[in-house]
Design brief:
- This protein has about 70 residues and is mainly alpha-helical.
- Helices cover about 55% and strands about 10% of the residues.
- It has one domain: 434 Repressor (Amino-terminal Domain) (Orthogonal Bundle).
- The mean pLDDT is about 95.
C-alpha cells in the first residue's frame, strides 16, 4: 500500500504557497517540494509537527494510504 502525501491539497485549502510554508517552518523549498511530490523517503516528526502547525491541520490531513 503506497503512502500518499496530500501537502499540495492542504496548501491549496489554506491558500498558502510553498514559499510561504518554507518561511514558516524553516525548511528549504527544495525539501518541501520533495515531500510534496511524494519522493521523500521519510519525514521527521518535528518537521511534520511544524508543517501541521503552519497549516493548522493534523498529520492525517497530509499523509494517507492509498486504497
Amino acid at each position: 500500500m503506497p503512502i500518499i502525501i496530500n501537502l499540495d491539497v492542504m496548501l491549496a485549502k489554506r491558500k498558502m504557497s510553498l514559499t510561504e510554508l518554507s518561511a514558516k517552518v524553516g525548511l528549504t523549498i527544495v525539501n518541501l517540494s520533495i515531500l510534496k511530490t511524494g519522493k521523500a523517503k521519510g519525514v521527521r516528526f518535528d518537521t511534520l509537527e511544524a508543517i501541521c502547525k503552519a497549516l493548522d491541520c493534523k498529520p492525517g490531513d497530509i499523509i494517507d494510504i492509498a486504497d
